[in-house]
Design goal:
185 residues, mainly alpha, rod-shaped
Length: 185
């Protein structure tokens, strides 16, 4: 849906093909030998395929005993068929090639733009995750620090004799120190 491609497509399909394809007057004059090209590629293609159908019909009309190499060469050496082949090889191919080149460059630009946009969004996503990670990590570290401070204060308040005598406190401290030692080791 690119404006450049749409404009080019409309020009070659519906307008004078010779004016649009060639800038020099010599090339335009040579192209103007085929008046059907003045109506655009759409009309020229229809005329071309009508001519091909006509060749097939001419061949089918030949009696069975006259369908030999000489008859086929006569049909294909007709000026109209040679003009059609020349028009197809020179003008149709050139017009379609230019159209495909424009389409290709527009698609490359679109994909390049989309790739850059996806890359920018990915970088923004990673940056947001990074910020969120540090925000959550900071909250975790703060809560752990507070928990350690409370535990340290409680241990400072509870006498050692009481810790050794109360079985639940003693087991809790031994288990938590084993867990701490295992997590560090």
């Amino acid at each position: 849906n690119n404006a450049e491609y749409n404009n080019y497509f409309d020009q070659i399909i519906y307008n004078d093909l010779c004016v649009f394809l060639y800038s020099s007057s010599t090339e335009q004059a040579e192209c103007n030998i085929y008046p059907v090209l003045k109506k655009g590629l759409h009309s020229a293609n229809i005329a071309y395929w009508d001519s091909i159908r006509s060749v097939v019909d001419d061949f089918k009309k030949l009696p069975g005993n006259q369908k030999n190499l000489t008859a086929i060469q006569a049909i294909f050496s007709d000026k109209k068929n040679k003009d059609n082949e020349r028009m197809q090889n020179r003008y149709f191919t050139y017009a379609y090639q230019k159209l495909l080149n424009i389409l290709d460059s527009n698609l490359q630009n679109k994909f390049s733009t989309e790739t850059n946009l996806i890359l920018i969004l990915f970088i923004a996503y990673v940056a947001i995750l990074f910020v969120l990670y540090f925000f959550v990590w900071t909250l975790f570290v703060e809560s752990t620090r507070n928990s350690l401070w409370v535990t340290k204060c409680m241990l400072g308040i509870i006498p050692v004799n009481t810790i050794l005598e109360v079985k639940n406190i003693k087991e809790f401290l031994i288990n938590s120190s084993k867990g701490l030692m295992l997590s560090l080791g």
